[in-house]
Design a protein that fits this description.
alpha/beta, Rossmann fold, 2 domains, 11 strands, 16% strand, methyltransferase activity
């Protein structure tokens, strides 16, 4: 049954409900999470298990001591910011940890007072909901295609691509050896190595990978890890090597936001066109349209 037929069936059913009970039923339909189980599939369970495996190997903020520059960048943010990896920690899990006093969503504006303000949460990984959105609603069929994740970190993009797409090859380029080891651990445990490869390298040495890719993912990839001059160098390198017509770029934030304060000389209008996305999708109770709206899709001209 397709969507129009299902919609008609629901309206037909509503027409059979007594007028007295109909408002209660409609309110229940608007607020219940009971339908989420129909959206849950085996691959979701596997991805959840992977997140649990990785959580056991990471500090709660999912920032390693080897990420010196990222730690310093976090401290320079104007508002108090904590890193909460969205792949490892769902909203429900964050809420549970807050209730246990192991995590907080707020900070004290004036020590000793009752004035509190929300902490800014930052993640360098896609959440599991965002991964489903990416592979089921953003990207086209990836059968036979090559996807590159620039700065693959814990491998969420790669693992999601293995489970939710038919991509022929999923390659993560990660400069941090500790993260490479964690990704390799998951590849071995879940037998993902037939389609996933992790490359321990600076992406600015991987011209051949970039040139061959059909999809390139850039999620908060440079801002928190490189100084401005290095960011410029990286973006110029990518724009010079990602020239195959039709190649897709998935970015968070938008390319415009990433480049607006950098002197790269890149003319986006001559390089890519943005593909408009529909963010009005429901993927379960943790669907966050605002978070989804930060995902942008471009295609090389």
């Amino acid at each position: 049954m397709d969507f129009p037929m299902a919609k008609c069936a629901i309206f037909s059913l509503l027409g059979q409900v007594s007028p007295r009970e109909l408002p209660k039923l409609i309110e229940w339909l608007k607020t219940t999470n009971d339908f989420d189980e129909y959206l849950w599939e085996n691959n979701d369970v596997i991805l959840q298990n992977i997140a649990e495996d990785l959580r056991s190997c990471m500090p709660m903020d999912a920032v390693l001591e080897s990420e010196h520059r990222a730690i310093e960048k976090m401290k320079q943010k104007p508002e108090p910011t904590v890193h909460v990896d969205a792949f490892l920690y769902s909203d429900d899990l964050v809420d549970a940890l807050c209730e246990e006093g192991k995590m907080s969503r707020h900070y004290c504006v004036s020590c000793g007072s009752h004035q509190i303000a929300p902490l800014a949460f930052l993640s360098h990984s896609f959440s599991r909901v965002e991964l489903k959105f990416l592979y089921q609603h953003v990207l086209p069929d990836l059968t036979g295609k090559i996807l590159i994740d620039t700065g693959s970190r814990l491998g969420a993009i790669l693992f999601g691509g293995y489970l939710y797409s038919s991509a022929a090859r999923l390659q993560g380029v990660e400069i941090n050896a500790d993260f490479c080891r964690l990704q390799e651990m998951i590849l071995r445990k879940y037998n993902f190595a037939d389609r996933i490869q992790v490359v321990h390298a600076d992406v600015c040495t991987q011209a051949s990978l970039l040139q061959a890719a059909d999809v390139i993912v850039l999620n908060n990839v440079f801002e928190y890890f490189l100084e401005e001059a290095e960011q410029c160098r990286a973006w110029i390198y990518i724009s010079s090597n990602v020239r195959k017509k039709g190649t897709f770029l998935v970015t968070v934030p938008s390319l415009e936001e990433s480049l607006h304060s950098l002197e790269t000389g890149i003319d986006l209008s001559q390089w890519v066109k943005e593909v408009q996305l529909d963010y009005n999708v429901y993927l379960g109770k943790e669907t966050d349209e605002d978070a989804l709206s930060h995902i942008h899709l471009y295609q090389v001209l």
